[in-house]
């Protein structure tokens, strides 16, 4: 029990155990000030209230079989007392047959006498001032928005696990989501859309696979819809949300070569296995499971997903396909390009750009601010003699290897530069220095772009309007689930703006409140840079390559060069000589 969302989880599980059909969760200040969960379940009678608040007072284990199967979600009989020990807790409940309900309060371990309380049949638990008596833990609570987003995610998970139950979430008196019970297919689709977003639904592939007693159902998004964060991934085993290494690995492998490195698929999947084939009690808190036959489950998941993706034609989107055939993408050879690139749009649907555009791709993508470096470099071949004696750090380009690496020669020998990585770095550093300087300049779109988002994303865009503006994104809300994008960063004017916005929002959602703006913004800027960068498999001519190398040198000199993977490596003559056993 470490934050509001873990309290909400216990309370909602209790409501579900009590057979509730509607559950309302109300938070104040991210749940730090107050959490209320109201349900229309079975309720408790007067004398059951105090009992429910005592340790190990569960009403849920009737037999040993129950322990085996854990039909209900909780069984430890500890949630209410442990919550009551770290917050002020009021429990009121009205059993179906009673005239009115009863309320008991717990204050510093003392349980009050039940007093009559007016409420509908069902139960209301109210938790105030979480950790008021444990300052060390209270200190670790994050900004309201962050705590809220944990609860929001939790409720999405419940909503996907239990379509038959209605869920409502309120924050500071405002309803942020209201999902009625969805028993019919139409209702289910609309819930899926509310929880996963419209884009997900537009790219959805339905999964329905069976092998013997095990079945996989649900939905995955075609790889062309993917996320910067793993924030649209829901996996349920026998109705319980789980995180599991076997499952994660199987899913990741299935998507591996249809998604660009670093991008995350979106899915809602339900695995059903016979109860005795899985042990769910490994960690009641941590959503872990243990499969008796993990390998079988892995194979089944992997092959089911692969089949579904292949049938949906996603196989055509392998990012490495050009490479595997040993030829770089060239104009007029559809499908040879690195079409797995996350941004949607023409560039992604297997249609390579015309040669002219490919050649100028680097220049246009970088946009304003590069003209100097570019013209110098463009003049390189003719100015050869003039530059003699001062060969630049990364040397002069000689060739491009498989559309991925630039080969260049400097005084020491051979330099290999990863074109995409280098460009990403340059864009990132530029965005970063502008962001911390006068702010990233936006460029007005000729035609404002409508972007469909989930309600949460729309809220986020609204709340963080100013922060988005400082990133060069001017966005207004145009409906409960839609935004209008008016300006994009000038540096990124040539990218898929809608996808850029979605990824930035997804990063913002993940990095949370304003206290983390700085670290968060670096992540956001790097996501943005990735969008602006020239893809692998794009043909550049020598001038373009030299321009990229010159920009790269500028960036390296700026002293920001520590980002994990290298962008270039030097193979000096001595190393090359050694490779050829020369000189010894
Ligand atoms: P557990 O859920 O493991 O039994 P809890 O401490 O969460 O333990 O709850 C203790 C008991 O209180 C439950 O077994 C149940 O009888 C009762 N209870 C808790 N919440 C509710 C609710 N929302 N509706 C009806 N009964 C509840
Ligand atoms: Mg419980």
As a whole number of angstroms, the C-alpha radius of gyration is 28 Å
CATH architecture tag of the largest domain = 2-Layer Sandwich
Number of E-type strands: 23
Total of domains: 3
Indicate the percent of residues in helices.
Answer: 25-40%
| Overall outline | elongated
Query: Helix segment count?
Result: 22
CATH level 1 name of the largest domain: Alpha Beta
CATH fold descriptor of the largest domain: Ribosomal Protein S8, Chain: A, domain 1
What would the average pLDDT be, to the nearest integer?
78
% residues in beta strands = 15-25%
The CATH homology group name of the largest domain: MutL, C-terminal domain, regulatory subdomain
Small molecules held by this entry: adenosine-5'-diphosphate, magnesium ion
Structural class estimated from helices and strands:
alpha+beta
Question: Which properties best describe this structure?
Answer:
binds adenosine-5'-diphosphate, Ribosomal Protein S8, Chain: A, domain 1, 5-stranded mixed sheet, alpha+beta, 9-stranded mixed sheet, 3 domains, binds magnesium ion, 23 strands, single chain, Heat Shock Protein 90, 584 residues, 23% strand, Ribosomal Protein S5, domain 2
Describe the structure.
This protein is α+β, with helices and mostly antiparallel strands. It has three domains: 4-179, Heat Shock Protein 90 (2-Layer Sandwich), CATH 3.30.565; 197-315, Ribosomal Protein S5, domain 2; 344-584, MutL, C-terminal domain, regulatory subdomain (Ribosomal Protein S8, Chain: A, domain 1), CATH 3.30.1370.100. Helix content is 37%, strand content 23%. It contains 22 helices and 23 strands. The strands form five sheets. Strands 1, 2, 3, 4, 5, 6, 7, 8 and 9 form a nine-stranded mixed β-sheet that branches. β21 and β22 form a beta hairpin. The chain starts with a helix and ends in a 5-residue tail after the last helix. Bound molecules: adenosine-5'-diphosphate (ADP) and magnesium ion. Magnesium ion binds at residues 10, 13-14, 74, 79.
